[in-house]
Amino acid sequence: MSTSSRRLGIMAQRDVHRDSYIEEWPEAGLIMINSPADPVPSIDLDEHQQIIALDGRLVAEFDMMDHFIKDNGIDTSIAEEAMTIDSEAYAHMLVDINVTRQEIAGFIKGITPAKLVDIIRHLNVVEMMMALQKMRVRKTPANQAHVTNCKEHPALLAADAAEAAVRGFAEEETTVAVSRSAPFNALSILVGSQAGCGGVLTQCAVEEDMSLQLAMKGLTSYAETLSVYGTDDTFIDGDDTPWSKAFLASAYASRGVKVRFTSGTGSEALMGHAEGKSMLYLEARCLMAIRGSGSQGVQNGSISCIALPGSLPGGVKGVLAENLMAAMLDLEVASGNDAMASHSDIRKTAKLMLQMLPGTDFVTSGYSAMTRKDNLFGGGNFDVEDIDDWTVIQRDMQVDGGITPVEEGALIAARERGTRAIQAVYDGLGFPPITDEEVEAAVYGHDSDDMPDRPKSEDLAAAEAFLQGPDTIIEVIQVLANRGFTEVAERLLEMQKLRIAGDHLQPSAIVTDTFEVMSAVNDPNDYTGPGTGYRLTGDRWEALKNIPSAQNPKSIIHPDELENKPCDFSVKGIALAGTDGKDVVIAVGPAFGTKITETLSGITHGEVLKRICQGIEAEGYTPRVVKIYRTSDCGAIGWHGAQLSGSGIAIGLQSKGTILITRKGLNPLNNLELFGMSPNLTKTSYGMIGQNAARYAKGTPVVPVPSTIDNMARLKYIVKTTLMHRKETSCVRLDAPSREWDIHFDHEADV
């Protein structure tokens, strides 16, 4: 005898059980919040407003991060007042629509890392989402894309970058499998993105020295590779300090490159230097160091460590909390959702909703604009094959997740512009040529498997020579202008002008397709409750709700087209009550065979009647077809038919194919057999239903007609069902008598 549950065994095979789950272990930093080693919030200032103690530690006990936060991360002019406000009071302020974000952000500048976490303790997930909606820096949410491929093929990179731009991504990021590919990868997505849409900011995620070189060449316009950590030892492992990161940030900014740091819960525990502190406390230290470095924003949300906090109790809530803490500190938030978070589609989506619904500055810090197998960032949480799901969710909830639905023709046109433009650049600058075959494959292909191989060693040598040589983006612009790609050249030039003006270095800046900068300066988040802040309305809502797969409901059925009438009939007259005991009535709905001529699944009404009649006749009984005009309800149609049946047995049949067997004396909601899932009915099914109806009339034992259960049919057919029933109902005539039909079959049906 079995001692284990078969049900539980099957459930254990679900994708959710492929993820890792662990119990908390504070000593190893494997706890999201409330570690026993977390300090109690406190601050002490001397008579000169200098910090002498921070979160329970005296200056003499400070580590590197404490010193940096002391000198750069806390506004001591308001610190004492800010720290005296109760943490629960702060939590109430965050969800109170009568308290502005400016008021809250002003106080937050004066609190300590431990105080920041202590505020978060008082908020549940829904409250955090409410707070994030208010505390987001920029009013308008946006999204960022990853663009890579396994072959590092420039044509495919340019095509995918162009497509991502047309889909509305405000930023695009690439990386490399081979570091020497960086110049060409950066060049490909830069040219491709501007071929798709002007104003897209691009970066290449590589080692920081090379990243800066690419920026100086004009190949990138932002950077987010400046990682920070919450403990000294973790920083040391990275061969860096908060001061070196701040210096590097200023080097980027001085060259007109937007800078966003990277942090995220779990990195310290992953690297073995958590010091027994909770993930959120260490992240609070990171965020305050980032603000102290002068960065306008942060990429956080656990990022590549996501599976680690995701394994802990409250881990996904904690990821939302770190996004909120960053927004409270007036930082632009690129809120993760890029690295694979779970095997479970339900769990992945649940995590996403925490950022997508309230909106963040960038809902993902890298949506995979290509297939998962081509994602050199380690596999995206959502990829190009999920875009239609994403745009439908936007439509479902009237929420802006930063991706615009686009028709196929526009996507193909953009991909071709991108690949032709990079082909021209390669030719004009003497790089290994991109063939027409490669262009064709990139325009119409799906992933790198569709691409011809490149002369990789030649590409790498050319990329290295370009990086070390005198040519810059200016030469690229000249080539594009000379080869007829005037618009792309002009857009690239505008991107260089931006770097001189520096407007896109403002907090939380994105650039529109007309090269207008939107930032916290000119697009501040003004949410103060219902009716305020960002609302998905107007042209943007029209764009997001018009997904390519949306059909005009009037086109789904063509009820008045009768050129290919499936059956022929004549009206015998008003239907009278039958007197023959072998009489079985087939009662049909008011639109049957006239305004509607096929079932929901596409079986012609003529074929349905033939099969039912054959089944009745096979038992020696006589079918009689009666059209009921007084109702469109299947039960009521059958009930009226039973009143007219000589045997007392009737079949009720709606135009969409829903069918039942009933008996005189039963109420309309009762029946002998009901077949509500009409899409699952076959021609054979209808024949068997006719046969069973005759057997009920004969009084012989009846085995019910087997039904196929398809739980997904409702999803496929619900709209068509609604429209067909609407048409049926529109044909109802309460004062019209039932009429009997004389059916003339055009051909013999198979038994």
* Fold-level CATH name of the largest domain: TIM Barrel
If you compute it from the alpha carbons, what radius of gyration comes out, rounded to the nearest whole angstrom?
34 Å
| The CATH superfamily title of the largest domain | Diol/glycerol dehydratase, large subunit
How large a portion of the residues is in β-strands, by DSSP E? 5-15%
Number of domains: 3
> Can you give the mean pLDDT?
94
| Discrete helix count | 29
As laid out across the biggest beta sheet, the strand order is 14-20-16-15-17-18-19
- Any guess at the CATH architecture of the largest domain? Alpha-Beta Barrel
CATH class of the largest domain: Alpha Beta
Unreliable runs: 559-564, 747-751
Model description:
- The two termini are 46 Å apart.
- This protein folds into three domains: 220 residues, Alpha-Beta Barrel (TIM Barrel); 256 residues, Alpha-Beta Barrel (TIM Barrel), CATH 3.20.20.350; 177 residues, B12-dependent dehydatase associated subunit (Rossmann fold, 3-Layer(aba) Sandwich).
- A hairpin with a 5-residue loop joins strand 17 and strand 18.
- By secondary structure, it is of the alpha/beta class.
- Helix 8 runs parallel beside helix 9.
- It is elongated, with a radius of gyration of 34 Å.
Quick summary of this structure?
By secondary structure, the chain is α/β, with parallel strands linked by helices. It has three domains: 20-125 and 221-334, TIM Barrel (Alpha-Beta Barrel), CATH 3.20.20; 136-207 and 362-545, TIM Barrel (Alpha-Beta Barrel); 568-744, Rossmann fold (3-Layer(aba) Sandwich), CATH 3.40.50.10150.
